[in-house]
Design brief:
With 293 residues, the protein is α/β, with parallel strands linked by helices. Helix content is 40%, strand content 16%. The structure holds NADP nicotinamide-adenine-dinucleotide phosphate. The site of NADP nicotinamide-adenine-dinucleotide phosphate has 24 residues, from helix 10.
Amino acid sequence: MSAKIISGNEVSKQLKDEMKEEVVKLKAQGMEPCLSVILVGEDPASKVYVLNKKKACEYIGIKSLETRLPATTTTEELLKVIEGYNNDKTVHGILCQLPLPKHIPETKILRAILPEKDVDCFHPFNVGLISIGEVRFLPCTPAGVIELIKRGGFETAGKDVVILGRSNIVGRPLSNMLDQRDMNATVTMCHTKTKNLKERCAAADIVIGAIGRPEYVKADMVKEGAVVIDVGINRVDAPGTEKGFKLVGDVAFDEVKEKAAAITPVPGGVGPMTIAMLMKNTLTAAKEAFFKK
Ligand code: NAP
């Protein structure tokens, strides 16, 4: 059996098309959703992410603002920029691209963004809301994972889910979301100190890889007919190719796809979903601001 490939490129396109239609209707009611992105420094990967976010905004019809600051920016200067966007009623979402230069404390910056504009869903207030099942925003990558499972046609209720990785960006919020009453999964979150990790994976109905270890999840770690979602993005050498490297996930795709019921590819799986979910959060923020004013 070869697995169904759940394409993040296709699902994210569907989502963006749905949002595009919604934005037309919102604009007809006099609202223009707006996302502000702040980029500090010259990190090449961050520049690409910011560009992709801008392109997604353009596609959907969301206004996008951008502030580019030098790597020498002080914490106080960055806080001032955030304060400006916090106070600007025409801005609905604020995103500060990570990583920040080492001298700027990330937590201080992320907590300065107003929770109602925190479209990355990194503010402890919004994280806390998820824990008690009162969701405003969902963190983008975990929300993308769940959307792929749902739109791939798979249920989470009553399923045993193993998540590899417990980071605050992926594993932990995903676990928090999947065992809520609307998802009803039974979740095991694994990390470097987990015992019998291989056996736990092999018993799961759904395996989610988010550890940043190239092709770590092999076929013998996956149950026949499991759903496998690969969050990992790892750069590995590929001599003889144009770039000299390629991107692979945390799952050994070629062997696992022969055993799983469904699997997401890397690239083209969870990656494109992250931006789509950011756009969704921006629309949520805009609607909350507009209809509650
Ligand atoms: P991270 O902060 O480095 O966390 C990695 C987690 O994996 C940690 O909890 C670590 O355990 C665990 N881990 C590492 N090696 C392990 C092993 N051999 N066995 C069991 N657990 C192990 O990483 P992250 O930010 O969550 O990212 C994870 C991967 O997802 C990376 O490849 C990243 O590029 C990718 N990612 C993709 C997207 C996307 O949009 N598709 C978004 C974010 C991240 P300990 O806690 O014990 O150290």
